[in-house]
Amino acid sequence: MNIPSNLTEFLYWVKERTEKLWSVDDENCPKGFYGAKWQGLSKEQIDQVEKKYNIRFIPEHKEFLKILHTIDKKEIFEYEDDGELITEERNFFYNWLADEKEVLEIIKSSYSWMKYDADEDSQVWLSSWGIKPASLEKRIEIFEEWFSHVPALLPLTGLRYIVSDENLKWKPVISLGSSDIIVMGWDLRTYLLNELSNYLDIHIDVFDEEDQMFYPELIDEVKNIFDENFKYDQTKDIPYLKERILYLSSGWSSFGLSYYPENAGIHPIVKTEMSEEEK
């Protein structure tokens, strides 16, 4: 398939393949996506957004915003509630020009979700925070000092954030919700292959002898990209957040590590360290 390794070429590749899939109104096109087009931003618009929100996009993020950014359609979800069919529209990727309320809320949420870790009902307390104080006020004070050093987290879609620190060698995208934080890709290319895998025609149907049916499986080229991107590398770091991600066993694979032995049958999510608390 020869998926482009150059980010700019890759983003145009994503644009072409997704828009082609969405141009056909069939079972492969998500509800509400028929005819969808990406709505890139101009340099002037990107500058305006940075000024408006008092943020700085890293170069890779700017390239994403210039070529992709968001689509001109809403994703439609339908579900039943007490026998009534409910229809909701949701953003596919945040529109920095039109979704001010949602963008501000999701930016603040990265703080509030992690702040909950310092609450008395939470079970998370990092070693670097020292002995866990009995006082909630003191715990929040310690958390806020720690959070002030966390790199800026800028939203892409849903609970996905790009770590906005251009000094980092790797440019990871994380999924952050409640206590569980994982890396979705150590660069935008891998992240987008992960996030948009259902819209890029990068699967093949593989027959399962036991179930006697076909299942979609990623092509080898994409598997190799994922394997390479997520393998252990000591240079992979997210200042302050790395410790937080590794606090739960679910985050270890983000750094190419395994908390459980290879032959372990099940991998329950557990804390990887225990904090000392004030008596």
Automatic annotation (TrEMBL):
Organism: Chryseobacterium joostei
Residues of the Knr4/Smi1-like domain: 40-149
SMART domains per the UniProt record, alphabetical: SMI1_KNR4 (SM00860)
Name of protein: SMI1/KNR4 family protein
UniProt-listed InterPro entries: Knr4/Smi1-like_dom, Knr4/Smi1-like_sf
SUPFAM superfamilies named among the record's database cross-references: SMI1/KNR4-like
Domain of life: Bacteria
